[in-house]
Design brief:
alpha+beta; seven-stranded mixed beta sheet; single chain; globular
Amino acid sequence: MTPFRRFLGQLLIGILRPFLYVWLRYLVNWKLVSPPPKDVKPPYLILSTHVSVFEMPLMLLHTRPNPVIVLHELHLVDKLFLMLLSVVGPVWRMQGMPDPRTIRQMKRAVGSGRSVLIYPEGDLNWDGDSLKLDIGMAKAARFIGAPVLVFKTEGSYLGFPRWAHKARRGRVDLKYTLAVRKEDFDVMSDEQILEKLNTAFMHSERRWFYEGAGKGQSYSSSKPALGLERLLFLCPSCKAHSRTKTDDRSIKCEACGFKVGVGADLSLDNGCGRGFEDVWQWHDWQSSEWEKFISGPFSDGTARLESDDIVAQLVKILPAPSSAVLKGGDYAHRILKNPVSIEATRAILSTKGIELADGAGNLVFSLPMDDIRSVQVFIIGIYNPNWLIVMTDDAYVNIQLKSGSNPCYPWLLAIKRMIAERASNRR
């Protein structure tokens, strides 16, 4: 990044900070509980939990100077977003895969005096519980060589989970923790570094709300249920999947008529009639039942997943440039072509892979399961259906599943299970 762009980025965020401060205070009532350390100066490697869309603006309020942000490379095809990011200086990453090139670029940014912000989970998590970091994160931190600062927002899942259409007002605690000092890398093993990282990083919104500092806190919302079908897709009454729908205050199953009210604190009216006191307990049951389905009827080929109202795109990936740094000092990345529409109206997922068909039932695109490297769900606008983002070696296949309850989440879980089985079989 050129000095002028860096100055422009600092100026822009500096101008926006007072407005972000007031706006976020109004929406989620945040409180800085643990500020950044005063005895260790940047640049840092900043690891942030990823439970809410508010985490980045909340972090930018208190982290100075602005960090370089590690982002999904699909943002490269969004020209407006790319222009806005150009003043921050992003580093691009592949989806869901170890990427040595990205780690080298992070080290280069730290070497130039910039802190680097990364979301190790790679995606907003679904239930507010952080995923455990693996040994690769400890090795990457050692290679980068900067002090590791962990940023957490406790309560922000309750404030604005990834499935919601509207923020809930309630307590959100912001915490910075100096997890690893630079000198720790000289005297600690990777396993010891990993333990320190996980101690600082791991967080459960459920435990925070019921047993921790969030106990007794109240949340308010005029639309506490809206969007919940993105998370809770399996009916506890008839076990139909992808048939749930929500209005402002309740979720129902269109297959059998089951309906339950939802509170701003994620509580369910009358125990949901099934002994589920809150959204988390329904989700626990759903996870267990869906695992049985994926390992049973789906895996043996007697069942498959289908969606009859879809939009699909193909984004071709070209090899990375040979030069490490592009014109203007930007960090190198793979080249992504503009999205091309796939003329399909129906998607079918089976153990063989994904098939897309047109209105007449003709197969127009086929993606074998063995070609799928990773899968993720993108939120493209709060009220729009999510996108299932499937990555192969040479393309991203983006599928918007619009029928039923916008069933990206069950498809995501099914594909991840098959990718994990494939990796296990190869060991």
